[in-house]
Input
Amino acid sequence: MDLFRTPQIVLFTRDINGAVAFYNALGFKEVFHTPSNGTPIHVDLALDGYRIGLATETSTREDHGLDPTADGQHAAVILWTDDVPAGYARLIDLGAKPIKTPETWLDRLLIAWVEDPSEIVALPVCEQMQRPQCS
Output
């Protein structure tokens, strides 16, 4: 038996309600929320079997004694898609700040860059070699 399973990333945010609303609008579904009433301090969201957690910077500091940062481009969420331009436009429509328009990277990926409302970088990405329609 393997010691570890089902890895997950937790992203720190100052605006957990805004971050949850943003990822819900992308199709992520809430699978964990605490506390059950009031403003959450931690929410887990899942899409296609991948789970991300959102935790408030304050709770992480006060509850766990850590020194998290919610400043700057400290993490990235990759959003695989068959249509990077449409994905990029949708992210911006949902309030993301554009960073870089779609461009080819490594001669095989079409990738764009936005910053979600919590300053987490989100990247719609498509494998051009396997999905020629993504450009």
